[in-house]
Amino acid sequence: MIAGFALVEVGGAWLGNSLTLAADAGHMFLDASALGLAWWASRLSRRGHDDRLTYGYHRFQVLAAFVNGLALLALCAWILVEAASRLRVPEEIAPLPVLLVAAVGLGVNLIAYRMLHGTDDLNVRSAALHVLGDILGSIAAIASALAVIWFGWRYADPILAVVVVAILVRGAYRVLRESATILLEATPKGIDLEAVRTALTQVTGVMEIHHVHAWALTGEKPMVTLHARVTDGTDEESAMGRIKEVLLESFGIDHSTIQVERSGCPDDD
Fold first, then answer.
1. I need a surface site. Which of 64, 203, 204, 247 has the fewest CB within 10 A?
2. 134 SS3 class
3. pTM of the model
4. Beta-ladder partners of 222
5. Quick check: is 136 in a domain?
6. 223 with 209: CB under 8 angstroms?
7. What is the pLDDT of residues 128-157, one digit of tens each?
């Protein structure tokens, strides 16, 4: 749907000489590939694990979100360059073709955004962000056409294009930051390692928690590894089971690897 209408916008931008509409057409082409990449990554992530990818294919969703964020920033840079040129030498646009095409494009994008909105999946959120950019681009194109029709103001087209870029850059930065955090295996958002240590040392028989490492396969799949030193006489399997219960109930971590120790840690050296 989006790829097909992008072709219509290319024709409308050429007929109307509209930078805002041309930027939106380019963005819609980028969105079509971004949505395809997001769909492919989601399908791929459903595969099971194997000996080569022992955690499965979940990270492909995060990688797709990172690539989409970079592509969105590159598009924003191109729009800024073109807008700067038109702010120096404003160009005439044909407002009626721009207004008609942008209005139809707004409807197409609203339908697509409704289909993608309201999920915690970073991959789908990055795709929805692209479509949101299209909605803003269509609104800006409508506004620029109306400004020319009502006031004859040629600066509306490049100025509104810059406004759209400012909104898109903020969203692209958030997607890049979240996906890069996961790819760098940083501690997932909302998990305090000191709070984890404190909670687990309250488990009966657990003396110390150390070598705690937390990361995430995706934004919805946090994981942790840790060492737990227990007192003499403590049943190791029972202690491990209680630790896993605390991790799941208090921190939402349903996959953990726990090494139980009774004396010195073999990894300290």
1. 204
2. helix
3. 0.71
4. 216
5. yes
6. no
7. 877 887 788 788 878 888 888 888 887 887
